[in-house]
Design a protein that fits this description.
It is a single chain. About 75% of the residues lie in helices and about 0% in strands. The radius of gyration is 22 Å and the shape is globular. It has 16 helices and two strands. It folds into two domains: about 160 residues, no CATH class; about 170 residues, no CATH class. Strand 1 and strand 2 form a beta hairpin. By secondary structure, the protein is mainly alpha-helical.
Length: about 350
């Protein structure tokens, strides 16, 4: 390695700039999902609770901006771009000045990105954060240089790429949703399996669904697949993990099983097949649509956000659910994943593919 390469490697190490799949593909995307959750998702839930239960302080306008009134929930949702950008910067180890400078970058990028704003924010924020980290504390006027470089790099890049990224991602999301309407059985199965597996992998299914704007029938299939993974693993591993495991996986995340999956991939069979069953049931039999915030499509039973998203969509579109709709929601999100995963899990234990302790978290 030449002296020039050594100096560059030393500089990158000193600045904590690491070009890796772990840093950008897992850490940054997981943080982005947290930013989405704390703003767009929570805001949507608050608005739904306010409108459904007639809670005055949740339905009243608390601030007016450019002639438009905002409730507590809608104000939280409006901050999704800044929250995602700051969360990504935090995951990349950015300093305070870089983090604060990412707030306007995230806002501008999300607006310019339109329906595909989350993915645009993801890409632009990574670039802006790394530029900001590169110049941070390199001059005596750091308080000016770092914010200026971060904001100019971020907003400048956003002006160039946010709209094209948004259109491209929006096109992919619309294609998936259109295909699901056209072929509900096959696409219901495919979407449920892929999004469900993304939820269990150390990447963010919530961020993916939000970026794609995955709603409607495809959103319902995604909810089914995510619930299948979480409820499936929770029920299937009950003998090893008891009630604590049931709650931590069923209402938390099936990602807790990732280490066990690496050691024995066969434990992933039952929840994945449960998703293959639940997806088409959602799309073909109950026509279950998720028309709440798209991030709900990738949340599963985490805080019951998937089912809440379906309910939110009903209320926002004026749809009045029947007893069959509620039954379908219960079957798709809870009953089918639990029954199918438990039954298949027992079969896999009997044939020796799953051994005692394989599912212990």
């Amino acid at each position: 390695m030449s002296n020039k390469e050594n100096r560059l490697a030393s500089f990158l190490k000193r600045k904590n700039i690491v070009f890796s799949l772990q840093r950008y593909g897992i850490d940054a995307m997981s943080a982005m999902a947290q930013g989405l959750f704390c703003t767009l998702l929570v805001g949507t839930i608050l608005n739904t609770l306010g409108s459904q239960f007639h809670i005055g302080f949740l339905t009243a306008s608390v601030v007016e901006i450019a002639g438009k009134g905002y409730t507590v929930g809608s104000l939280a949702s409006a901050m999704v771009g800044p929250a995602m950008a700051a969360a990504i910067g935090s995951a990349l180890g950015a300093s305070g000045l870089v983090l604060f400078s990412l707030i306007p970058v995230g806002y501008a990028t999300n607006v310019l990105g339109g329906a595909g704003g989350p993915f645009a924010v993801y890409i632009v924020s990574i670039v802006a954060a790394e530029f900001g980290k590169a110049v941070s504390k390199e001059t005596k006027v750091d308080i000016l240089v770092t914010p200026i470089v971060t904001i100019l790099a971020g907003v400048g890049l956003a002006a160039l790429v946010a709209a094209p990224i948004g259109k491209a991602v929006g096109w992919v999301g619309n294609l998936i949703m259109w295909s699901t309407e056209l072929h509900p059985f096959m696409m219901g199965m495919l979407v449920a399996v892929l999004v469900g597996m993304a939820l269990t992998l150390p990447i963010s299914s919530a961020a993916i669904c939000a970026g794609l704007g995955l709603t409607g029938l495809a959103g319902g299939a995604a909810v089914a697949g995510c619930c299948a993974q979480m409820v499936g693993f929770a029920v299937m591993s009950f003998r090893e993990n008891r009630w604590g495991g049931l709650v931590s996986q069923g209402l938390g995340t099936s990602m807790l099983q990732m280490g066990n999956i690496i050691r024995n991939p066969k434990i992933w069979i039952a929840p994945t097949i449960a998703g293959m069953v639940a997806g088409p049931v959602a799309t073909c039999i109950f026509r279950m649509e998720m028309n709440g915030a798209a991030v709900n499509s990738g949340m599963g039973t985490c805080g019951l956000c998937g089912p809440i998203g379906v309910w939110t969509g009903w209320s926002q579109t004026g749809f009045v659910p029947s007893a069959v709709d509620w039954l379908g929601l219960l079957l798709v999100c809870i009953v089918l994943p639990a029954v199918v995963s438990f039954a298949l899990g027992e079969v896999l234990r009997r044939v020796g593919w799953i051994k005692e302790g394989d599912l212990k978290i």
